[in-house]
Write a structure and sequence with these properties.
Blueprint (H helix, E strand, L loop, with lengths): L3 E3 L8 H31 L4 H23 L8 E3 L46 H10 L7
Helix pairs in contact: 1-2
């Protein structure tokens, strides 16, 4: 494609790498979320049942995200393609005349010289049906052996 090139410098992460990072971040966020939930649930709600649920959910959720990334996602990063501003064609002026010969030329005055009528293919010989011959074979009387 003219005017495009692959950007060198910053390469994107593959979906697999992104998934592994997300899972690791979720597992590490357990260290921050669980103490916050513990403080809120013990001091304000007077219900410590949320602490183990939060710890298990964050840790196991991160582990599952890592496994999903390893098993199901692509390991190849998508290519980034962008246009280079130095190779763009100059912009057309707004009030210029339209380019000439932009449309097809007009048709010739005597364009029907090479035309001929299509043949009628229904007049061709049609072979007899296959079932007619087999029906005749069934109609024959077979000699009976008594």
């Amino acid at each position: 494609m003219p005017g495009t090139q692959v950007r060198a410098g910053y390469s994107q992460l593959s979906p697999r790498s992104k998934g592994i990072r997300q899972g690791a971040l979720l597992m590490l966020s357990t260290l921050l979320i669980v103490p916050l939930v513990a403080i809120i649930s013990v001091f304000f709600l007077r219900s410590p049942e949320l602490i183990p649920i939060t710890a298990i959910t964050c840790f196991v959720g991160g582990l599952l995200r890592i496994f999903y990334a390893l098993l199901m996602e692509d390991s190849v990063a998508p290519m980034t393609v962008g246009s280079t501003p130095g190779h763009l064609p100059p912009a057309a002026r707004q009030f210029d005349q339209p380019p000439r010969n932009a449309a097809l030329p007009p048709p010739a005055a005597n364009s029907s010289m090479g035309w001929r009528q299509r043949p009628n293919t229904a007049e061709l010989y049609q072979p007899p049906s296959i079932t007619e011959n087999t029906t005749r074979l069934l109609d024959k009387d077979e000699p009976k052996n008594d």
